[in-house]
């Protein structure tokens, strides 16, 4: 039995190309039906195909009966309802898969938690950036891996999210499993209707290090320029007196020559 069809090929191919419900009262008499022998062998008579559009893909849902039926409005409405419900299920499944891929593959830290702070889900980036496994993160209070000087800031941010249900942004320094200090810029979105908080964190350690180096270089350049200006002033002042003496000596020498 054939199970692959190009768009427009046979009865099912026409469903793919037109994206419309198609009904055949007796497939054994339908010349465009590509599986007639299988239908005869299994006593199949009536057939209906329903297109399902999920956004990325088009599917066709087929129904067979061993008795001939007339397609009346009640059947059409029933099958359209089935198509809508199945289509929603497919779309939800695709959305979940896309979210799951994005959640797992992103280099940023993602976390979903309840408003009272219970972590529901987090992605692999936590381990990649900070070095702690999911099991280790579950075992201890996450406040303990925040830099001691930033813990009050973290608690204030958490209180604001829980109390005022606000979307907040803040940067926290963390102590990695290897003992390094990394800065994570957090952005949180509260969803009171679902009782959840969505948070994404970006590792900005290298950016901050680069900014710090630039600031230090700028200060060093300003200091060097100031030293150069001081040197130029002193050198200019120190050279003025010898130059006056040389000019005076030159004038006297010139007068003697002329006399």
Percentage of β-strand residues: 15-25%
Mean pLDDT: 79
- Gap between N and C termini, in Å? 129 Å
Tally of structural domains: 2
Structural class, judged by helices and strands?
Answer: alpha+beta
Strand order of the largest sheet: 5-4-8-7-6
- The CATH class assignment of the largest domain is Alpha Beta
Radius of gyration: 39 Å
CATH architecture of the largest domain: 2-Layer Sandwich
Total of DSSP H or I helical runs spanning 4+ residues: 7
Helical content stands at: 40-55%
- Pattern of helices and strands: HEHEEHEEHHHEEEH
Strand element count: 8
Biggest sheet features: 5 strands, antiparallel
Descriptive account of the structure:
With 259 residues, this protein is α+β, with helices and mostly antiparallel strands. The protein folds into 2 domains: 94 residues, Beta-Lactamase (2-Layer Sandwich); 103 residues, 2-Layer Sandwich (Beta-Lactamase). Helices cover 50% and strands 20% of the residues. The strands form 2 sheets. It has a 5-stranded antiparallel sheet with strand order 5-4-8-7-6, with helices on both faces. A 3-stranded antiparallel sheet has the order 1-2-3, sandwiched between helices. The chain is elongated, with a radius of gyration of 39 Å. The relative contact order is 0.07. It holds the Pfam family PAS_3. It catalyses: ATP + protein L-histidine = ADP + protein N-phospho-L-histidine. Keywords: Kinase, Phosphoprotein, Transferase. InterPro entries: GAF-like_dom_sf, HisK_dim/P_sf, NLP1-9_GAF, PAS, PAS-like_dom_sf, PAS_fold_3, Sensor_kinase/Photoreceptor. One of its GO terms (molecular function) is phosphorelay sensor kinase activity.
